[in-house]
Amino acid sequence: MLALAALLMCGGLSADPLTAALAEDRDAPAPAALEAPSLLPAAVWRLNGQAFVVELAVDPSVGARQFAAVHHYAIGVVALPVTLVQPQIAVGLPFYLLFAAPWQAVFNARADTLARVLVAEPLPTAIVQALRAQWRQTSPSRPALQVTLRLAGYGLMTRSGRELEAFDSAEDLCLVADGRLEVSREGRAPLAEDIAIGPLSTTRDAPPPLCASLSRWAADDGRPLRQATREMAELLAAFMVDRAERQP
Amino acid sequence: MRALRTQSRMAWPLRLPVLCLCAALTACAPWQTSAPITAVSYRTSREQVPRTVGKLRRLAALQVRVVPRVCAGGTDGVGHLTAVDPTARDLLAQRKGYELMEPDAAHPLAGVGDPLDASSATLVADLLAAKDAAQPLGPALAAWLGRLREGAHVDGVLVLKQEVSCLKSSPATRGLGALLSFGVTEVVGLDTTQPIAEYLDVAVFETSSSRMVWRNAYGRLEQVLVEPPRTLTGPGRADAVRAWSMAHLLEALEPAVPRLLTR
Predict the structure, then answer these.
(1) Domain span at residue A153?
(2) Candidate from A230, A239, A242 with C-beta closest to B48
């Protein structure tokens, strides 16, 4: 019981900061995010006159709405005296005391794991690392150009686009990213293109997003999400290389 | 000690239902090879997510429909190639990222495509036999997979078997129905040849090694354990149930390696 209580406290109380961050993300529209200053310093890589810049304008989103598990106990405790007046309410008490709070605590712990992984693996840095491996200088006399990827959305979201909740966790979460890619070359108008990898909209040559259940993403301390994040970085780097090579 | 032995003996009748349940649940899970899988349509990949069957991005998709002779529309009980179900096609191509190649009469693929062609009929029979028995492929099928590999750079072949069932082809169901209705179903002369269920079975074969690498089924047992939603009602129920079943069957297939990450 002590261990369960500790789990509930840890899972429930640590949920609040993440919930606040998620609320901010939800309120921020995509165009405003594109105009807003980058939260992290831009990751830049230069080579022989070519520059690759990656900016992340938003915090990674976990796509899960968390609720402190202790609140379920509070509901149960408040409902206890009410049962003296309305005995029917006693039927619902075991739900809150035995099922709702532990279920919510496990949900919160998994969402926290995913949030930790997304923060610990900064996407711009991973994209630049992937660029270093992918960029092949096809011609030494290639003119100088700058490729900028400004990410306006990144993280996990459900297929329907709404946030996942503890008692409706059957839906899959997909790893998504969207933003604007610009290729500019001296003396020419920059080419801009919106890039999206997600269940609701996907760029023509982008693959469908990787989707899995919350428990599967969080398994083994978030290893599947860590791998998928690296693959997302490889994909976005491949976009940058592809569009740069297409520039005449 | 004796009490412990007695308790151990008594535990077996209790364990048996649990083991049966575990076996039933295991039957619902897709089977997947543990051997490494090789694709032929690309040389290198920068994928970061470990994949097995997802490496076979370029897939030839074949759907085989089997209608028993005693059921309405049944011919000889042998499978025939049909167009791939739209739900399965959309799920594989748009949600899983596979490059599907669907042979038909206008676009035959390495000798397969025309359902009226004698070689196609033999091939379908070979495919069904290999899939049902999980045996090594016959020489004709292996040679055909080799032609797909060399000629069309196809990584794998997905075979979707759709087996129609009617009361007449299922004596056990018919007998149970007669028993539960006190023989009324037999007296009133129900049309027992009409389809009552469709059993789905899917297998993926790797062309580079000519062996089965993945398999999943939504058959009699699975349909008892995982029923389609009861909200699917109305005149289009059969189509809705088929679409749900296809999605349920293929959802377990892992996503393909993205084209952007391969060369």
Answers:
(1) 2-246
(2) A230
With an 8 Å Cβ cutoff, is B226 touching chain A?
Answer: no
Cβ of B49 and A210 within 8 Å? yes
Are B120 and B140 within 8 A, CB to CB? no
With beta carbons under 8 A apart, name residues in chain B contacting A235.
258, 260-261
pLDDT one-digit tens code per residue, A179-208: 999 999 877 888 899 999 999 888 989 999
Please list every residue in chain B whose beta carbon sits closer than 8 Å to the beta carbon of residue A133. Answer: 46
Distance from CA of A28 to the nearest CA of B (A): 28
Is the interface score ipTM higher than 0.90?
A: no
Phi first, then psi: what are they for B216, rounded to 5°?
Answer: -150, 155
Nearest to A231 among B49, B95, B96 (CB): B49
More confident position, B107 or A20: B107
- pTM for this prediction: 0.80
For the stretch A106-133, pLDDT in tens is: 999 999 999 999 999 899 999 999 998 8
Greater confidence (B239 vs A93) lies with B239
Domain count within chain A: 1
